Amino acid sequence: MSVSIEPIGVIHSPYKEKFAVPRQPGLVPSARAEIVLQGDANSAEAVRGLEQFSHLWLLFLFDQNLEAGWRPTVRPPRLGGNERIGVFASRATFRPNGIGMSAVELKGVRHQNGNVIIELGGVDLVDGTPIVDIKPYIPYSDSLPDAQGGFAAEEPETLPVMFSDSAIKQLQPSKASYHQAVISEVLAQDPRPAYKKGKTDNKQYAVHLFNYNVRFTVSFDAITVTALEPIDDESFGA
């Protein structure tokens, strides 16, 4: 049996590349995103009643990984990137059908220039990710207080994030507090490879967030944003 899936929309988020995207939803609560519905799904009727709910389930495609295929075992970052477990015991992005799911906050729904746009918070999706379905989050059935979290039972530890004086000056004045909050929450997760957690290195890292090339360094107890280099990018979140 073969099934064809057609995306119903696309997400626009501050995350312009896979590096440093939060590994789970809700870890960067300040980050805002939008889904622009498309095709037959771009209908006011399709979202009627949606705003009754505070949170949504998003089903999406790991479109940047589809051509790479998948393997039955993976190395989760939470296990240091060394131990292998079954792909179905993980949330790895390399999956048999490349489908992901995230529980995110619903901020609102608006209609603009003929488009239905769903406003979200706490997302963990790369800008441009195809959305294949949206479902309301139902607390009485979807929240299971007695559930066991396996190797990922605890929230990941975070590091404090500091900005150099020059980096502060490079923030866009009109969005400075929002951009600084999101960048801080993203980098606090320490997006480096898992084997570098808790270690100091001499490397300067960079990640594309909003319309900045964010340069930062990591010590064992803090992260410092050294520069915010502007990128000519007029997409969402710039």
Q: Tags for this entry?
A:
single chain; 238 residues; mainly beta; Elongation Factor Tu (Ef-tu), domain 3; YaeB-like fold; 2 domains; 6-stranded antiparallel β-barrel; 3 helices; 12 strands; 30% strand; globular
Layout of strands and helices, then pairs:
Elements: E1 9-12, E2 32-37, E3 55-61, E4 73-74, E5 85-86, E6 99-112, E7 115-121, E8 130-136, H1 139-142, E9 161-163, H2 165-169, H3 176-187, E10 205-209, E11 212-218, E12 223-230
Parallel strand pairs: 9-12
Antiparallel strand pairs: 1-2, 1-8, 2-7, 3-6, 3-8, 4-5, 6-7, 10-11, 11-12
Structure described in brief:
This protein has a 6-stranded antiparallel barrel. 26% of the residues are buried.
Would you give an account of this structure?
- With 238 residues, this protein is mainly beta.
- The protein is built from 3 helices and 12 strands.
- Strands 1-2-7-6-3-8 form a 6-stranded antiparallel barrel. The protein has a 4-stranded mixed sheet with strand order 9-12-11-10. Strands 4-5 form a two-stranded antiparallel ribbon.
- The protein folds into 2 domains: 142 residues, YaeB-like (Elongation Factor Tu (Ef-tu), domain 3), CATH 2.40.30; 70 residues, YaeB-like fold, CATH 3.30.2310.
